[in-house]
Specification:
Distance between the termini: 23 Å
Helix content: 10-25%
Shape: globular
Strand content: 35-45%
Number of strands: 8
Radius of gyration: 15 Å
Order of helices and strands: EEEHEEEEHE
Strand order of the largest sheet: 4-7-1-8
């Protein structure tokens, strides 16, 4: 049976902290220490939540710019790290979806 993979997305902003350090960097370090295949943090141009609209620009340096942490790994690895990620993310939105890995063409 082929390996199954999942994509985890964690929606944050730059102001989020974990033990006094930027949460997105702490999540990446946790994923690396846990042996995950990799992770990426993306900065959004704009976004909104139920709490209000967040718009960003180059002038907004130092504000609460929206971020998304993505990582893809085997279902078993995701299940292993997800409880700690949920704790780190607190009330932030975390999504999980099954993905298919497309092998490179020869």
């Amino acid at each position: 049976m082929a390996d199954r993979y999942q994509l985890v997305s964690i929606y944050l902003n730059e102001a989020d902290q974990w033990h006094g350090r930027p949460l997105h960097l702490e999540i990446l370090q946790f994923l690396q220490r846990s042996g995950c295949a990799g992770g990426t943090v993306l900065r959004a141009v704009a976004g909104f939540t139920a709490a209000g609209v967040v718009t960003t620009s180059l002038v907004d340096v130092g504000t609460k710019l929206p971020l998304v942490v993505h990582f893809i790994d085997r279902v078993e690895k995701v299940a292993e790290v997800l409880p700690a990620l949920r704790q780190m993310a607190g009330q932030r939105l975390v999504t999980l979806e099954d993905v298919e890995i497309v092998p490179p063409s020869s």
